Amino acid sequence: MDKIILTSGCSFTSQLHPNDGGPWNRPKFNDECPTWSDYLYQDGHDVVNIAFPTNANTSITRGLICKAHELLNQGKKVTIIAQYTMAIRSEIFVSSKESVDFDYYLPKKFGGKHEFSWNLNNWKESDFKDHFWILTGGNLGDDPFDNEFIVQKIKRWAKYFFNREYQILNTLERVIDLQMFCKKNKIPLKIFFLDGKDWDNELFFHYDYKQTHFYRDLINWNDIWFYNLTEDIQLKPYGMWGERSVTKTKFGGIDEWMHDTIHDDKKRYYDVDDSHPSEFAHRKFVNDIIYKWNIL
Question: Which of 3.40.720, 3.40.50, 3.90.320, 3.90.1150 would CATH assign to domain 3-89+163-292?
Answer without folding.
Answer: 3.40.50
